[in-house]
Amino acid sequence: MGILAGLRVVEVSAFVAAPSAGLALAQMGAEVIRIDDIRGGLDYRRWPVTEDNTSLFWQGLNKSKRSVAIDIRRPEGRELARSIICASGEDAGILLTNFPPKGWLDYDSLREARQDLIQLTVMGNRHGDSAVDYTVNPALGVPMFTGPEDHVGPVNSVLPAWDCITGQMAVSGLLAAERHRSRTGEGQHIKLALEDVAMATMGTLGFIAEAELGFDRERSGNYLYGAFGRDFVSADGVQFMLVGLTPKQWRGLCSATELETKMEQLAHARGLDFSREGDRYEARKEIAALIQPWAASRKIGEIDAAFSAQNVCWGRYQSTQEMVLNDPACSAENPLFVHREQAGIGEMLMPGSPLEFTGLDRKDVTGAPGLGEHTDQVLSELLQLSSGEIGRLHDQKLVSSG
């Protein structure tokens, strides 16, 4: 039993933002029912895939959900889907989607069947146009300060940060609307634009104010902007990131490397105060030049011991495969993970919710459903259809159970 047990959410979605919101809700115990196109949705074969073209992307984003497969291209299929969305239940009547809120997903039309409907629609921008991280970031200027210091031209990020943040904001929006409904009985149509999430984040973190003051953020390569942090290589060739962001981290770094006196001399020579993080950034290259010989003359085991003794903030670089093979944090030693069987793939290491609630055990992790795996069950439970009625829908090829 998760903390959201009893809550029912219907998800009509593809790609990252909306499915990640549904995943987070499902992993907290909500019943999340996907309405999937009978042929598989837009992201059903999204890369990465196995050798037989099973999408690891789709499987990862849809764990712990239920799937109902309907031919939503046909009017009868859309009406069936609408009935599932608006099915009765005090903790039901919640729709999560990133498809345009028109036609069968029009909020006002759906409200005719359920007045207290809560619908959250993830959009590209506030006008409802299509957008993804790779098109939003260029407008924000982020690719122009990403990458090596001497690079000319944009450098795209491979992490869909705005999608991930938008997904978590969608969770907040739905739960806030559900709380409001529990107090007032009123439904909501919440609109959440990927571009607005990105713009709001840029404003919150000071990027917009910086630009208003006439500054363009500089490229800082592998340096941490605004404080001290950079990558180094040990004597045995291990690359690691070292950070001195807070005063405590900075003191630990200086003590572990035995460079306190030289750092004080450098600060005095530059007329800077290294107790201030911005001053450490101003002298970042000179600071790195002092640390580099220390790192290059020691093997990683010695560096690890020195850093551990002073609680230094640092981390080794490793490939994703190295992480999976060797890192205890990415294994069943971490309560976040369990090994579970995933249909079509085999046993996989699956993460649950990162949230830990002291009064509840972690909800068990289950794999993603097969396409339409729960069609008959949902039609029977939610819509009270008989086996004969469900059979006729199958005969009409309006639904599928996989």
Brief synopsis:
This protein is of the alpha/beta class and about 400 residues long. It has helices at about 15-25, 55-60, 75-85, 105-110, 135-140, 160-185, 195-205, 205-210, 245-255, 260-270, 275-280, 285-295, 300-310, 320-325, 375-385, 385-395, and strands at about 10, 30-35, 65-70, 95, 120-125, 190-195, 230-235, 240-245, 315, 335-340, 345-350, 400. It folds into two domains: about 10-200 and about 335-400, Rossmann fold; about 230-315, formyl-coa transferase, domain 3 (2-Layer Sandwich), CATH 3.30.1540.
Kindly report the spatial arrangement of strands forming the biggest sheet.
Answer: 6-5-4-1-2-3-12
Report mean pLDDT, rounded to a whole number. Answer: 97
CATH-derived architecture of the largest domain:
3-Layer(aba) Sandwich
Number of domains: 2
Distance between the termini: 27 Å
CATH topology name of the largest domain: Rossmann fold
Structural class by secondary-structure content: alpha/beta
